[in-house]
Amino acid sequence: MTPQYLQLQGLHTKYNAKGLSVVGFPCNQFGKQEPGTEAEIKEFCTTKFNVTFDLFSKIDVNDDTAHPFYKHLTSQETKPKGKGKVSWNFEKFLLDREGNVIARFEPRTKPNAPEVIKLIEANLAK
Predict the structure, then answer these.
(1) What is the pTM of this model?
(2) Is the distance from CB of 106 to CB of 84 less than 8 angstroms?
(3) What CATH number should be reported for the domain holding residue 78?
(4) 94 is in which domain, residue-wise?
(5) According to the model, what pLDDT value does residue 89 have?
């Protein structure tokens, strides 16, 4: 699903000046797909996908070792996915300007899917 980096960067480029912040949290809990160091992951994302949005420290998102931020995100009953464990890398959470989770999308939902864009634009208009 790494081509989604291109779409995430597209959202960042198009909407950042209007208030959207795209952020990434690398995680190696899914098939050990992100085994590199934080520097290696950042280099891969910037050289292969021209990522300029913020990539944070590599964290765990599930189980007892989950970062507190993800414990909070996954405890929220949101649409369309609902609460519970992160199923795979590239699961997406949309937060409003106050930090409230307003949507959660499965990893296979593309960042530029119409339902994602509609929510982004509606919330940026507020």
Answers:
(1) 0.93
(2) no
(3) 3.40.30.10
(4) 4-124
(5) 95
